[in-house]
Amino acid sequence: MIDTENARVVLVCNELQPNIDFFKERLGFRLDGISPADAPKVALMSGRGLSLELRKGLEGSPTHLRIGSGQESELRAPNGTLVELRPSAPEVSLPPIQQELVITRLQSERGWGTGRAGMQYRDLIPGRLGGRFIASHIRIPKGGPVPDSVHYHHIRFQMIFCVKGWVRVAYEDQGEPQRLEAGDCFLQPPGMRHQVLESSDGLEVIEIASPAEHDTWMDHDLVLPSASVQANREFEGQRFVFHQASQTPWIAHVIDGFERRDLGIGAATGGLAQVAVLRPRAGHKPRAPWPSPKEFLFLYVLRGGLALEQSGGEGFQLAAGDCASLPPGEAWTLGALDDQLEWLEVRL
Q1: pLDDT bracket for residue 7 (50, 70, 90)
Q2: Residue in 18, 40, 20 with CA at minimum distance from that of residue 30
Q3: Side-chain half-sphere of 76: how many Cα atoms within 13 Å?
Q4: Are 210 and 156 within 8 A, CB to CB?
Q5: Which residues contact 189 (CB under 8 A, 6 or more apart)?
Q6: What is the Cα 49 distance to its own chain's centre?
Q7: Which top CATH class is 9-87?
Q8: Which one of 4, 11, 215, 308 is most buried, counting C-beta atoms within 10 A?
């Protein structure tokens, strides 16, 4: 008798042979076993990452299968099973953006929740601009090994900026694990495999991604760290970035009175995103009109105080740990409340 202990999808059949023929001829499955030989009631088939058990005479309702394919269509098996053929790697779906002004304050222990792998999350854009963007403040109070596995994301954009502490992460084709420290940043291209290994006590990072809801897939076959190093490898048109604050000079900003440390993300994303840390020049408390975003502008205050003034509207003062998402089409003036100010700025 055929072993039926292994995991597989069971499909109900009134007649076995027409369904065997359908999965072989229309979908390219192979027949792995059949029983009993004299009057078959069970057929085991495999293909496209699935193991199927076709069973004759078992009561039940038709099944719905979704199979990765280069084409997109729907087929119906003789037993009524609906087979959806869909692209294996569909394009990232971006929901229509719903622009709004969002000011989020750091409120001590309020607003934190527990998420993946025991990490604590604070949502910095609760409405997520209609699902187009997510910004999270993530922390690990007690450091040590992180219970993570090799995974990747089906995504348009994702970056990790370290605010406090450190974290070690292994990345595909980047050799030994990288240690991200305060002021450093990773750009994680779409589809790039990675694994969080360990962190310090009190780790805090800012993670920004688009879209807000995206698929995360585990890779059970790849082992990290990688022996190979392909520093300039492209993943869906983007390159991995490990920005180290200690190795990057400050340069004058085009807006007088400010200077910036570019994180290299513009070049690595083909101009999709521009990310920098900004501050007033030494001894200055400048105030200047600030360029409106085309799609997304996010400011996170790292230290000191920042003033935002909306033309003809309300003004806001942001302290360390506060952040703002500014909609396009508005005229803003930005000012430094003190010469300790530093903020992270992300534009798409």
Answers
A1: low
A2: 20
A3: 4
A4: yes
A5: 234, 235, 236, 238, 239, 240, 268
A6: 25
A7: alpha beta
A8: 11
Say which CATH topology domain 251-347 has.
Answer: Jelly Rolls (2.60.120)
Domain boundaries, the chain: 9-87, 106-241, 251-347
Distance between CA atoms of 336 and 279, rounded to whole angstroms? 8
**pLDDT, tens digit (0-9, with 9 covering 90-100), for 287-307:** 999 999 999 999 999 999 999
DSSP 231: T
Query: Could you tell me if 317 and 339 are in contact, meaning their C-beta atoms sit under 8 angstroms apart?
Result: no
Contacts 24+ apart (CB under 8 A), 256-264: 256/286, 256/288, 257/281, 257/284, 257/286, 257/287, 257/288, 257/336, 258/286, 258/288, 263/185, 263/187, 264/187
Token couple for 45: 């088939």
What CA–CA distance (Å, rounded) separates 20 from 78? 10
**Rounded Cα distance, 158 and 191, in Å:** 11
CA distance 136 to 244: 21
CA dihedral 15→16→20→26, nearest 10 degrees, is 10
Write the CA distances from 162 to 64, 197, 270, 343, integer angstroms: 44, 15, 23, 13
**Single-letter code of the amino acid located at 105:** R
pTM score over 0.90: no
Between CA 155 and CA 145 the distance in angstroms is 26
